[in-house]
Fold each of these.
Amino acid sequence: MIRFACALALLSGPALAQDLNYSDAATQMCLEDAEDFSDRLTCAGASAGECMEETPGGDSTAGMVGCLDRELAFWDDQLNYFYGEAMTAAKQLDADRPSDMQNQLGSAAALREMQRAWIPFRDKSCAYEASLWGGGTGQGPAALSCLLDQTARQALTLSPPENG
C-alpha cells in the first residue's frame, strides 16, 4: 500500500510537486496548542489541508496527493522518533527486570512485535479505505489520507505522556 501511495505521488505531476505551498507549521502549531491525546489526533492533516487551500491546483488529485504525501512524511518522522524513544525506554525496563522475570517477553520485544503487527494493519486498513473509491481518482488521496491518519495515531500512541 505504501508503495502504491508513493508511486501515485511520483506520478502526480512533477511540476505541481515543486510548486506545493507546504509547511509543517500548521500541524506543529496544532500539536503545541493541543491539550490531550484526542486534541492531538485532530492535528493530523492540518498542514496538508492548508497546503491544499494555498496551492494553486491543490484541490486537484495531484495537488491533494502531493500535500498529503508531504504531511505523511512529517508523521512518519515523528513515528520513527517516538518509536526509537520508546524502544530505548523499553530496553531500560528490560535491563531493570528482576532475574526471575528474564524468561518472559520483555518490553522491547513486545514493542517490536506490536509495531510489526501494526504495519500490516495500517496497510490493510488503508487498502480498504482506497477500495471504497472503486478505482476512481479519489482512491490515491483516500489511501494517503488514511496512511497519514494511521501514522499520526501510531506516532502519538508511542509518544511520551507529556507529548501524546
Amino acid sequence: MNIIKDYRNWRNYRRTVAELRDLSDSTLKDIGVERGAISEYARRVSGY
C-alpha cells in the first residue's frame, strides 16, 4: 500500500468532484456526466 499515491488519488478525487459540482447542468450534459453520477465519475477518473 502506497500512502502517498493513495493520498494523491484522494486529493484528485476531491478536486474533480468540486470542479464538476461547480458546472451547470447543461455543461455536465455536454461532457456526458449526470449530476447524480459525479462521485462515481470522479472515482473512475482519479483512481480513487
Amino acid sequence: MHLSDHGDGRLANIARIAASKEEMAILQRHLAVVVKSSAFQGSPRSGQFLEYIVSKALEGRAEMLKERIIGIELFGRNPSYDTAGDSIVRVTASEVRKRLLQHYGKHGNVSDIRISLPTGSYIPEITFETGPSLGAASRQNNGIATAPIEAIEQNHPTPQAVNEETTAVGTARTPAATSKVPVGRLALALGIPLLVLNCVVWAVFWNRTAASKSVTTSGLPWSFFFSSPHQLHLITSDPAIFQIQTLTSRQIEVSDYANHKYLPEPNTLSPEATAIYKDILRGDKLASSADPPIVAGIASLAESHALTVDVQAARNIQFSDLKNDDNFIFLGSPLSNPWTSIFSDQLDFRFVFVPPGGQERMINVHPQANEAKFYNPTAPGWETGESFAVVALVKNPDQAGRVLLIAGISGEGTSAAGKLVTEPSQFAEILQKCDLPANGAVQDFELLLKLNTVAGSPHHIDPIACHKLP
C-alpha cells in the first residue's frame, strides 16, 4: 500500500494510541458518543462507516482502507463491482466528513479528541488535543465532571418531531451555536457534491440539438410558458447555502440571502468555523448535481419551440429581478434555494426546517380527504428510504408571470420531480387525472410526489396528492 507522508503520520499516531490501554478506552468511549450523537442520528450507514475505518486503523490493517475493499466488506458489494459507477463508498465518506464537522461544531469546546477523515483518504486522523490526562483535568477545572458530551446530548436531545402547532404557522428556528471545528484539510471535506457544474457548463446544454421525435408540450406548465410573450428564467439551486444551513442548524431568511448575509453573527462562531464556512461560500458559481439534467431537459423542450431559457445561479439574482412579468422556474427547496420561500404562502405542501441538523420535512396546511398533515422523510439524502418532492405552478406576487417550483426534500427528490416535468406526455397525463386543463385558462396547482431511494438513486416515484391552488 502506497501512502503519503501524511498517511504514514496518521497511521503512526493511531498505532501509538492502540498501544495505550488508557487512550484506547477513552477513544472507544468517544467514538461511541460521536456515533450516537445528533449529528449521526438518522444515518446508521455513516456511523457504521466511521466505526469501520477507525477499527481497521486501530487494528493496523490500513490495507483494508481502500474503496473497493470497503465496498465489499462494509456494503456487501461484489468483489468485481465497478467503483467508477457505484460511488457508495465515496458518497458515504463525504457524508461522514460533513457529520463530523457538525458534531465538533456543536461539542468541540468540551471534547479533547478529534476524529476526522481527510479528503481523498479513508484513513482517519485521530488527535488528542491536550492528551487524555490533561483533558480530564481541564474538564474538571471547568466545572464539567465526566462525559461532558454525553451530558450535553442528554440535556439537549434531538427532537423526534417538531411541535405541530409551531410548524403549522411557520418555520422552526434555533440560534446558531458557538462552533469550534477542526481546521486544515477538513475545511475542504464538507460534503459539497463533487459533480457540481459551473456556469460554463450551461453552454453545453444550450448547444444540445432537439430530439428527433416531436415533443408534446400542450399541457401545463409548458402550454403557458411557451405561449407567453415574456422571457422564461431558470434559477438553479445553491448547494453551498444548503451546507451552511445544515452545519449551523440555522435557516437563512431570503432577505439575508438577497443581501449576501450568509453566516451567523461573527461573535457566535469561532475563527476556525468562520474560515471553513467562507471556504464553502467560495463556490458561488456552483450548482447542485441534481440541476444539470433538469436544465438540459427544459432547454430541449424550449428548443423545440425555438425559444431560449435564461439560466441564472440563485446567488446571482436580486429581488428586483423578480419584479416583472417574466416567468420563472426555481430548482430546489428553501434549504437549497432560499428564493423559493417567497412563494411558500401560496402552497398547501410546505417545507419545514427542522434543527438540529437542518433537515426538512413537509407539512400539509390544507389536508384533503385521506391526506396526512405531515410527511416525514426517512432518507435525508444519499440514503435508502422514503422522501418527498413538490411540483407547483404559482403566481409571482404582484406580477403577471408564473413561477414553476421543482423541489425535493433531498437532491434525489428534486431530480425525480425534474425528470417528471421534463417528460411532458407523462406529466400531462398525471395532471389530467387531477382535472387540470391542458389548454385554455392557466390553473395554478401543486403536486406532491413520494419516492423511494436506494443509496441515493430515486425510484418508484408516485404522485400522492394534487391540489388546485386559488
